[in-house]
Write a structure and sequence with these properties.
The complex is a heterodimer of chains A (408) and B (166).
Chain A: E1 13-15, H1 22-33, E2 39-43, E3 52-58, E4 61-67, E5 73-77, E6 92-94, E7 98-99, E8 106-107, E9 113-115, E10 141-147, E11 150-154, H2 162-166, H3 168-178, E12 182-192, H4 196-204, H5 209-212, H6 214-218, E13 227-232, E14 239-244, H7 252-255, E15 284-291, E16 295-300, E17 303-311, E18 317-326, H8 331-340, H9 352-364, E19 372-374, E20 385-386, H10 393-406
Antiparallel strand pairs in A: 1-19, 2-11, 3-4, 3-6, 4-5, 5-10, 7-8, 8-9, 10-11, 12-18, 13-14, 13-20, 14-15, 15-16, 16-17, 17-18
Helix pairs in contact in A: 4-9
Chain B: H1 2-31, E1 42-52, H2 53-57, E2 65-67, H3 70-82, E3 89-95, E4 99-104, E5 107-120, E6 125-140, E7 143-153, E8 157-159
Parallel strand pairs in B: 1-7
Antiparallel strand pairs in B: 1-2, 3-5, 4-5, 5-6, 6-7
Chain lengths: 408, 166
């Protein structure tokens, strides 16, 4: 792999090669996606019945997630042990066993090879080699754990359990947002024109929020000066940033000329878009959490979303959004969530720029493989917590975690 | 019976022609960047939603874009003009002939196929969306307006972002 030129223990300068280099990409597949990290495989409510399955990408690898006859979730690589064909071609469904259509090899819902077509040959002729042992040719299994309805899988047997992997601060927020019966209100995907890490940097970048997303500032809806913080788990691997509704005194900064379009005359004609209720006793109005490497959970007012960014080669990625509601929602609350969902997704008032900027940075850094970006807002360290969200510490934390796995 | 049926075909032909014209105006208005006119194709309480086939068939209520009245549509357009940041681009709609699914008084339900090409600045045109309109149209004293227009995209996947209505 190309040398990365990170300074020892300093993740405030990032070589642009990480967004385009093919060797780095392959290394990531091996050490990160198939390495010691947990990967989001969907929600357990997506697979309510025995035999329900869906396919999910873990990096470049297609993975089958299936609920077995005991109600447990299994995950295995979607690759026949015979010749590598996709076992499940459709992205979801229900079945009793997994059958590869190519030569009709079947597997049980644990991934064990059950039957082989013409195993004993035809009329005594042919058949599998005598030394062939079916028990050695199962589908490759992933370790699976579920936390608050979120299903994760890992290729690593040594990886700590999910609560330990996330750490107590991160678990607390996952519990707060998702620790109840949830339902899916919509799922959307968009293709992004750049490397997946550009999007994860953006998720962790609390500095850009009110600068890039001028919907909020134009319609005078949010300020970076609301009370809140950005914090990271030990080692910087995961992050959480949040705002709590409070008196906003810091108008000065935002009336400065360098901030785009400020106009007192501009208001929404349909302010019901933002009608909300205080869903959480803590008063949190915004919480963005990233779980290393490529998954995140958001609470934006009453819009609750999950995001997964999957690499599609070094220069492309694919983002999936799950928009969630709580089963206990009243019809009014549900209607508010659905209306507020205009804020998120590929057409989201305060999300669309995040998709666009991935492509712009990709184009901006083309030909700059030997150069570096700078992440020095809020210093160069990775503090555990900062009350100022004008800070890139969580982005530095991502790179520390990424570098740690890539150095393996 | 035969006469009635002929009359019904004639009425349908007239109606379909009017709706076809409405759709062409609708497409042209967007393609020619007269987006401030776009909400006027709807009734005041008109509903506009862009969704995907998968979400639609699963009965998912959240849209890629969801406007529950004309004011929300006007907000979409002003946000696009003054707030949201995106690379300038234009659409070209090809809208198929409408098919009437249901008639009830002055209200009609229709389904119409569409293709929407997108051209981003210097890069060439690409197919941005193929799909169908599911419409409820009201004849309000001779003026046809959308009471509801649901755009169902065939693909679950949108390229980069959607900001201009389809």
């Amino acid at each position: 792999m190309a040398p990365l030129y990170f300074k020892p223990n300093d993740f405030s300068e990032i070589p642009y090669a990480v967004y385009s280099d093919e060797e780095i990409y392959q290394h990531e597949q091996k050490y990160l996606f198939q390495g010691k990290a947990w990967h989001f495989l969907g929600l357990d409510i997506e697979l309510p019945n025995h035999g329900d399955y869906k396919t999910m990408p873990v990096g470049d690898t297609s993975v089958i997630v299936v609920r077995n006859k005991n109600g447990e979730l299994n995950a295995m690589v979607n690759r026949c042990a015979h010749r590598g064909n996709l076992v499940c071609v459709e992205d979801h469904g229900n079945l009793d066993c997994l059958t590869c259509v190519y030569h009709n090899w079947t597997y049980d819902l644990e991934g064990k090879l059950a039957t082989i077509a013409f195993e004993k040959g035809i009329q005594g002729q042919g058949g599998m080699a005598e030394d062939f042992d079916k028990s050695c040719h199962a589908l490759q299994r992933l370790k699976v754990e579920v936390y608050c309805g979120l299903v994760f899988g890992s290729f690593s047997e040594e990886i700590p359990s999910l609560p330990e992997y996330f750490g107590p601060e991160m678990c607390k927020n996952i519990q707060r947002v998702l620790g109840r019966d949830m339902e899916i209100l919509g799922r959307f995907q968009h293709g992004l024109d750049g490397n997946w890490k550009l999007y994860m940097e953006n998720v962790r970048d609390t500095y850009h929020a009110t600068l890039l997303h001028s919907f909020m500032t134009t319609f005078r809806l949010n300020r970076l000066s609301m009370k809140g913080a950005v914090e990271v788990s030990e080692g910087g691997l995961h992050h959480l940033t949040y705002s709590i509704r409070s008196q906003d005194n810091d108008q000065g900064q935002y009336n400065a000329k360098e901030i785009r379009a400020q106009n007192d005359e501009i208001f929404l004609k349909a302010p019901e878009l933002l009608e909300s209720w205080q869903e959480f006793d803590c008063g949190t109005t915004l919480a963005i959490q990233s779980l290393f490497p490529n998954f995140s959970i958001q609470q934006l007012s009453n819009v609750i979303t999950l995001r997964l960014i999957v690499p599609k080669g070094p220069l492309k990625s694919e983002l999936t959004w799950w928009v969630l509601g709580a089963v206990e929602d009243t019809s009014e609350q549900r209607a508010m969530r659905i209306r507020q969902s205009n804020l998120v997704g590929p057409g989201g008032y305060i999300a669309m720029e995040d998709g666009a900027v991935v492509g712009w940075v990709r184009r901006g850094v083309a030909g700059a493989e030997g150069k570096k970006s700078v992440l020095a807002m809020g210093g160069r360290d990775i503090e555990r917590i900062s009350e100022s969200r004008c800070n890139e510490l969580a982005v530095r934390g991502f790179w520390k975690g990424w570098h740690g796995l890539m150095e393996n | 019976m035969e006469n009635n049926s002929t009359a019904s075909i004639d009425t349908d032909a007239n109606l379909l022609q009017k709706i076809d014209t409405l759709n062409r105006h609708y497409g042209n208005t967007i393609d020619e960047d007269q987006l401030e006119e776009w909400p006027t194709f709807f009734t005041d309480d008109g509903r506009y939603m862009v969704t995907t086939r998968q979400n639609h068939e699963a009965g998912m209520p959240v849209g890629l874009i969801l406007c529950e009245n004309r004011a929300m549509m006007e907000d979409r357009i002003s946000a696009l003009r003054i707030a949201n940041l995106f690379e300038p681009h234009t659409y070209r709609h090809l809208i198929d002939a409408p098919v009437i699914k249901e008639k009830s008084g002055n209200e009609y339900s229709l389904q119409t196929s569409l293709v929407c090409f997108r051209t981003v600045q210097a890069s060439g045109p690409e197919i941005f969306c193929t799909g169908k309109y599911l419409d409820r149209i009201i004849d309000d004293g001779g003026i046809l307006r959308f009471k509801e227009r649901i755009v169902v995209c065939d693909s679950e996947r949108i390229d980069t972002l959607i900001v201009i209505p389809i």
